[in-house]
Structures are given as C-alpha cells and as structure tokens.
C-alpha cells in the first residue's frame, strides 16, 4: 500500500463539519434529532410530563421492540449500516430490545426471518428487502398482523399503507444522473461503459441505470458494453471480480465502469494488472478501500478518474426513526426520502477530493456518520 497518510487534520475536520451540517439538515427536515447531538426535544409523555430534552421526538412514549431484517448481511456496507441503526436505536430509551437477522442472500430465509420476528412479538420491523417483490407477501403479512413494517432502500413493490406502513427510499435515479453527467465530462462524450449492479431485478441498480440513460441518450458516442441494464454481481466482492475479469477478456476497450458498490469493485483492481490494462474512469459509491487504492495507483503513476456519491450508510437511521415513531406514537419524520449527494471527485476536488483515511479500516466508509471507533467496532 501507499505510504500516503490520508487526510491532513484541517481537511479531515472540514469534511467532518460538512458531513455534520448535511446530517443536521436531514434531521431538521425529518423532524428528527441530529445524528450527533440528540437534537430536538420530544413531546410530553403520556402522563403530560416534559420529555427528556436529549430524547429525540421520534421516540414517542410507548415502549417498543424493534428488529432489523437484512436480506443479506455479509459485507462491510451492511455491517456499517447496521452499526448506524444500532447507534440510532441507542438514543431512544423506550426501545426495549433490538434484534437483527441476516437472510444470507436467500429469499426464503429472509421471509422466514420476518415470520419468526412477527411470531416472537416484535412490534416494529425495518427490512432491507434484497429479493425485491418476492418479499412483499411477508411484509404484507407482518403489516396485517399489526407490526409496524418499514422496508427501506430497495423497493419490494406494493404500496405504503396497504402492504406496509412506510417505504424509506432514496432517489437512485439521481445517483445515475450524477454519474452520467460526470462521465460525459471525463469521457468527452465518447467511450464504452461497463455497468455493474447488485442482485437480479433489484430496484436500486435498475433505477441507477435509468438515471444514467436519461442523460446518456443525448450522447450516442457513449455506450454500454456487457449485459444491460447491468451485470449482476449480487454486491459480492468475489462475484464482482469474476464479472470484471470476464469483461476484460471480452471487451478490448472499457473506458469507464459504473457500480453501486465501490468497495466490491476495489477488490477487482488486480484483474486489470493481470490483463495488462489501465483502470478506467470509475463512478460509484464511496469506500475507503477504493479511495486508498486510488491513492496507491496515483502514487505509482497510474492515476484514474474517480467520482463517488455517498454510500448512505446512515439511511438505516431514517428507517429506524420512521418505524419507532409509528410504533411508539412519536413524531414521524416529515420526509421518508433520504437525499443523494456527491461525495468525492478526483477531477474537481468538490465537495471532497478522493479521501483515503488510514485511521479507519480499509473496509470502512469515510462518508459514514459513525465515529471512527464506532465504525471499527461495527466492522469487527
């Protein structure tokens, strides 16, 4: 690895301040507390007594048990995201228990996990429905059983209020738009793009592709190679490397790669060296490993263009806020849409340059709102 030591102190402080300002804006928009301060005062409790000023308003007054059911939990993004959820839960004293299940990428297990949580009396349920619409019957069953049910990030289909309480979303099409606009600039309107996505038919990867297409349809010189809308990687590092290796063998010219899991793509950089190919321009989500590998390549004289949007690990916090508020009589956030935001750009340096933080593990995310010690603990 490069001997580069990452952020200089004043830059690190500036970036943390920027992150805190952005998180504070999200919290105010959601009538929730700031991620770092505990934020807004809660309403009076059921007896009419003033609530603890350090307890956020989404906590409500009724005691609730909460669970997070992941469709797949065995990668660093999920571990940090679960850490974010746990940190959010810790703000709310009336959450009496927190359970976590890992569907291990198996839709039937993910469905069984939800059924088991409902059977044991869980009152509020946050779900990452990796399997998409295959999860809808289980979500609907939980909802009909009276469990506050909040899927997030990947759409299960169905309708809020009928099949579940709320869907906490983000505008993945906007992420695709941001990637495509950047690609137009760095490719000067011409080149071959390999697009990598997650599991088959997941809404995130589909929306990102549609967002890119909304821009690139005006630039016929930029075209996608490989399977469209995306090459399936299941957001798995080993499968990502296999896909990239096969693409390098098949396509003599790949000028850019887009992917919604930068941490997995970083594991494939050795495939470029083995193929005697330069790493192309990359548009993706941020990851510390990716940033540090970029720095290493730059130090070795093999710099490539890199653009990232935030990995949005803190999105699980908003899902927790919504679920707990609905189940406990708290103040439901005004918006259930988590904002997209550009994080790094190696060309412009705005809003941040590519940021390798060697005080964090390589599988961490610099954009996470967890402290370094919290993120290190989450990744163990």
Beta-strand content? 15-25%
Number of domains: 2
What does the overall shape look like? globular
CATH architecture of the largest domain: 3-Layer(aba) Sandwich
Low-confidence stretches: 1-51
Structure write-up:
With 380 residues, the chain is an alpha/beta fold. It has 2 domains: 31-167 and 313-337, 3-Layer(aba) Sandwich (Rossmann fold), CATH 3.40.50.2300; 172-309, 3-Layer(aba) Sandwich (Rossmann fold), CATH 3.40.50. It has helices at 9-29, 76-89, 107-119, 136-144, 172-186, 203-216, 237-250, 262-266, 269-274, 288-299, 315-328, 372-379; strands at 64-70, 95-102, 124-128, 148-151, 169-170, 191-197, 222-225, 231-232, 256-259, 281-285, 306-309, 337-338, 342-345. Strands 6, 7, 8, 9, 10, 11 and 13 form a 7-stranded mixed beta sheet that branches. The chain has a 4-stranded parallel beta sheet with strand order 2-1-3-4, with helices on both faces. Helix 2 packs parallel to helix 11 and helix 5 (172-186) packs across helix 6. The two termini are 22 Å apart.
């Amino acid at each position: 690895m490069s001997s580069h030591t990452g952020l200089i102190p004043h830059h690190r402080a500036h970036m943390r301040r920027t992150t805190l300002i952005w998180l504070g804006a999200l919290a105010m928009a959601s009538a929730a507390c700031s991620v770092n301060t505990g934020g807004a005062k809660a309403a009076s409790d059921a007896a009419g007594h003033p609530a603890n000023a350090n307890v956020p308003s989404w906590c409500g007054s009724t005691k609730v048990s909460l669970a997070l059911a992941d469709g797949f939990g065995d990668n660093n993004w999920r571990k940090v995201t679960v850490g974010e959820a746990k940190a959010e839960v810790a703000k709310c004293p009336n959450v009496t228990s927190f359970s976590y299940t890992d569907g291990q990428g198996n839709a039937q297990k993910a469905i069984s996990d939800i059924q088991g949580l409902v059977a044991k009396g869980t009152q509020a349920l946050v779900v990452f429905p990796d399997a998409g619409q295959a999860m809808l019957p289980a979500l609907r069953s939980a909802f009909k059983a009276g469990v506050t049910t909040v899927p997030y990030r990947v759409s299960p289909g169905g309708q809020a209020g009928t099949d579940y309480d709320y869907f906490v979303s983000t505008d993945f099409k906007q992420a695709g738009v941001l990637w495509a606009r950047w690609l137009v600039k760095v490719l000067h309107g011409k080149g071959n793009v390999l697009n990598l996505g997650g599991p088959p038919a997941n809404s995130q990867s589909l929306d990102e592709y549609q967002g890119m297409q909304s821009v690139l349809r005006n630039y016929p010189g930029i075209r996608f190679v490989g399977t469209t809308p995306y090459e399936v990687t299941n957001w798995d590092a080993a499968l990502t490397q296999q896909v990239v290796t096969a693409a390098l063998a098949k396509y003599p010219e790949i000028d850019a790669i887009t992917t919604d899991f930068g941490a997995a793509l970083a594991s494939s950089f050795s495939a470029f060296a083995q193929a005697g190919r330069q790493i192309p321009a990359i548009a993706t989500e941020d990851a510390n490993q990716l940033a540090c590998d970029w720095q290493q390549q730059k130090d070795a004289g093999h710099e490539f263009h890199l653009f990232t949007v935030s990995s949005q690990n803190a999105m699980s916090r908003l899902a927790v806020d919504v679920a707990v508020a609905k189940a406990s009589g708290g103040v439901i956030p005004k918006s259930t849409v988590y904002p997209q935001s550009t994080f790094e750009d190696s060309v412009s340096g705005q809003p941040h340059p590519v940021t390798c933080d060697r005080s964090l593990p390589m599988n961490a995310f610099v954009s996470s709102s967890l402290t370094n010690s919290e993120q290190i603990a989450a990744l163990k």
